[in-house]
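Data availability (excerpt). The following record was deposited with the supplementary files.
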Amino acid sequence: MHKNRNARQRPAGNLLSMSILGIIAASFCFLNSYTGDFVFDDSEAIVNNHDVQNSPPYKIFQNDFWGTYLSNNKSHKSYRPLTILSFRFHYWMRGRLDPKDFHIVNIILHTLVCVILLFVFEILLDWKEPQIAYNAAMLFSVHPIHTEAVSGIVGRADVLSGLFMWLSLISYYKCTSSTSLFTQLIGMFLCIINSAIAMLCKETGITILGVCIIYDIVIVNKILPFEVFNILRLKYTYNEMKTLIISKTALLMRCVLLTIVCISFLLLRFYIMGFSKPVFKPIDNPTSFLENVFLRIINYNYIYCLNLWLLICPEWLCFDWSMGCVPLIHGIDFRIIFIICLWVLFGLLILILLSEKDYILSRIITISMGLLVIPFLPASNIFFTVGFVLAERTLYIPSAGYCLLVAVGYKLLSICMKNSKVLSMLYCILLITFFARSWSRSEQWKTEITLFQSGLNVCPLNAKVHYNVGKNAADRGNTQFAKLEYQEALRLNPNYTQAMNNLGNLYKDEKAYDLAEKVLKQAVNIQNDFAAAWMNLGVVLTAQKKYKEAEECFITAISHRNKYPDCYYNLGLLYLAIKENDKALKAWKIATKQKPKHKQAWTNMILLLDNIGEREKALKVSNQALFQLPEDPSINFNTGNLLGKMDQFKMAEYHFKKAINEDPKNPNFYTNLGVLYHRWNRFDKAEEAYRKALKLNPESTIINENLNKLNNIKLKRSNAT
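Predicted structure:
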């Protein structure tokens, strides 16, 4: 390594351009994911998230990442409004959710992050080791651990946060390297703003302020770890400390300011959360629920080993590492050896950091370790419990520190080895291998079928993987396989209430009500606040005509989830079954108030009011429904029927035609239009409508009877003339 500590070498223009092109090309290892679907968490965070599509924009800043109000006890407290805004921008541009748009933007953002990271590495290396910076950036570009963050659309939070974290560090570099006070102030301001934006993309963005402080101390002011250690041990005299403080006044002011900003951001974050923390269950993070503190620490350290191993050898990658994927250590276990190796490795690095022999190496390792460890702290369970065992996307930013360490090691080995060409070839093989692994892994993220199957290959004992495989099979209509997978999930985790709920629904759809009731009752006994299971149990009991029990289930479900339009809809069906029409209408009215586009509730209100002779009220409700769902064929169809009965033929015709325009293959629409024309004495049009209906449904006796009646009328009129 270069020994001139003051010289700042910038790569030549052509070399820099080639480096950037190489990094861009390398980052395209995830390119084949652009044709992928919305998979796994994408459905919850994007497809089913009203904040992405139609809720008022201000709601984005009140809700968590999944669209739940932050103060709600069900909220995960993940506050990432700017990431949700980026999703909403896609929807605003397209008018629909096209996964290809989301994937392309993720890939572009990752490429941009990789290019900017080259300059970040140059800054962290004090512009003295361009080759190390380039090698580290190339490794970061192709690392397979990034697949979840890039190929999974939800990973946009990590990539966006990383982008603004690097911009924050570059701004801080401008602040520390400029002699102009104005530039220093602008640099500090941009550093703080970018860190705030990074935090609003994902919570871990705040950690860049810690990296900036380490950079300022170690690289800018060249204060080495052993010097800090000596200060803490009070080895300096009063005069020496006074001289040091005076000489480092600017450093202290910057560090104090960043610390104050960091604390302020954290307090603001807790204020937005309502000073409450998310509530997780043992299935989310079983280690955190171990009562024995020593065993908890051992298991946390083993998870750290797994994180490091995924950075070293990213062969076994899984979309979810919970529920048996990582068995807990309860006593003497061979895996403790890996924990010992981890701390031996860190011990060696600390010895190097505290060494006074190689200032440059000590500084580089310190900043690399800072970049690796500090962004990982929010996922470490040290400061607060997280809702996962291990999540690959949380390694997106920390992996930059790892890549820098590897590049430094590569440079040291090449200096020590006589034949560095062999080492260069091995490094190229590593990059090619990682590129290929990233390419194949991003292919697995394209569909839920391939993603969940890959999870089974890595974690066959993971109940959640089997649950997701079953859910995907059920969505595709393969109910028998879905039941087997849900049953396997329950074998691995007998208290898995979500699997019980879905299995109960499959039994319900097969009309195996006794089995459905048994499974759903088991689910609510284990998790009393499981609103969806209570509702589904109510549906099953209604089908068995156990109306009193069913009503209690629906009311219990609503008590656990105040805004539950589907539950109110099903409660309305129960009241309809026992002929309590007023209660049914009231329940459906609440359903439409909570979910204005709940077409089943609107349709049932229209039909019920029509059946009890309240046609004026029914027409009023239908107009309200059309305001919310103007293009819905069923609403238009029922409105047309209602208007036809009220002899408003022209308006009825308009709504029938609108229904047909939206759903031209529904024979009922043509049949009722024919009846309208029949009553309207427009016999030719009636015959035309009946024949179109008959073409779609040739076996219909009703259509044939209506057509015969029409022909008889036309025949009588013809004979009369």
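Summary of structural features: Confidence is low (pLDDT under 50) at residues 2-8.
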